[in-house]
Amino acid sequence: MDRVVDQLRELVPALAFLLAGVPLAALLDRLGFFESVANLVVGRSTRGTPVAALWALAAATTVVLNLDTTIVLLTPLYLRLARRTGTDEVAAAVIPLVLAGLASSVLPVSNLTTLIAAEHYDLGTSNVMAHLGVPSIAAVTVGWLAYRRRHPARLPVVAPGPVDRRALRWGGAVVAGLLVGFVLGPAVGIDAWMVALTADVVLIALTRGVPWREVPLATAVLVAAVAAVVAATVPIGAADWLAEHGDGAAIGATSLAAAAAAGAVNNLPALLASLGTTTRIGWAGWAWLLGVNAGAVLVPTGALANLLWLRIMGAEGAPVTWSRYVVAVVPIALPGFLAAILVLIAHHAVGVGP
């Protein structure tokens, strides 16, 4: 029971952000912020909005802030851009989802799983970047090439739409506060979920409504229950073999196994179960971390960010079935994930330190 409690305690910040994040997106949308930003973006484009810029923005947001921020702030915006330009809604909204996975291994702050691993193994930012930075760049690049083969490179030019200056002013102030809080908050003990909850309160006052139906309580309870089961059933030390260095084939197999584990039980329980009793990370440990980060996007249950995306899409009137999710994501994310694995194997081959 002590282990179950410990793992649930590790999950609290992520689950709290999930509960605060969906209402946050809904409240910003109710304010009219995303619609106004979308109209402003397409109205200023004379040649059509370049999708590569949207891809780069999602990648940068994930790296510098975190994957949940990418989902909450960019999914509704990209969905509005698609509606405004008459293009495929899922094709546009899938960009932040895919980048939330492929770009989330560059820095410890990019993903809660990496933060937990960094604390457990006493890893610095430079250590994480040295091992997973280049694989992540490869994943983002190859993912873009795969996306470009399936979808247009520019959104069509459309006539300018109305821009609500009040929504831009207040929504922009809230978003600016969010970004500052996400970046500086951890240094003073303020978690991301606290920042999001504060923004929720401000937006509730502005919109004069509480989006109770958007709070994903059932999803949070389900994830917590799965984590509890994993903690109770996986023996302590079962994953200590991850401290071993391994060869190229073992690195590839471990990353794929980690992605499968994340898909089965969610990436946070999969990561927590892998930490074991050792505080030494080997090549297999890096491979596992890459798998639970970049590989978790392949199926809806792989990460809380995926579930957050599904809830936001449903709240925005664009529900995505699990089969549609797989069809939209796998042809883009899988090549990127495999590219990241190959680069990690190459790191091992040329002797980058474990």
Summarize the structure in words.
The chain is mainly α and 354 residues long. Helices cover 73% and strands 0% of the residues. The chain contains 15 helices and no strands. Helix 3 packs antiparallel against helix 4 and helix 3 packs parallel to helix 5. The longest helix is centred in the first third of the chain and has 30 residues. It is globular.
Question: Outline of this structure?
Answer:
This protein is mainly alpha-helical and 354 residues long. The protein has helices at 2-31, 33-43, 51-64, 67-85, 89-102, 112-121, 125-150, 165-184, 192-207, 217-233, 248-265, 267-275, 283-294, 304-315, 322-350. The longest helix has 30 residues, at 2-31.
**Number of helical elements:** 15
User: What is the H-and-E element order?
Assistant: HHHHHHHHHHHHHHH
The share of residues in extended strands comes to under 5%
Q: Low-confidence spans: pLDDT under 50, at least 5 residues?
A: none
Indicate the radius of gyration in whole angstroms. 20 Å
Would you report the number of β strands?
A: 0
Structural class: mainly alpha
Mean pLDDT: 86
Overall shape? globular
Ends distance: 33 Å
Helix content: over 70%
Oligomer: single chain
Can you summarize the main beta sheet?
Answer: none
Give the helix/strand layout.
Elements lengths: L1 H30 L1 H11 L7 H14 L2 H19 L3 H14 L9 H10 L3 H26 L14 H20 L7 H16 L9 H17 L14 H18 L1 H9 L7 H12 L9 H12 L6 H29 L4
Helix pairs in contact: 1-4, 1-9, 1-10, 1-14, 2-4, 3-4, 3-5, 4-5, 4-14, 5-14, 5-15, 6-12, 7-15, 8-9, 10-12, 11-12, 11-13, 11-15, 12-13, 13-15
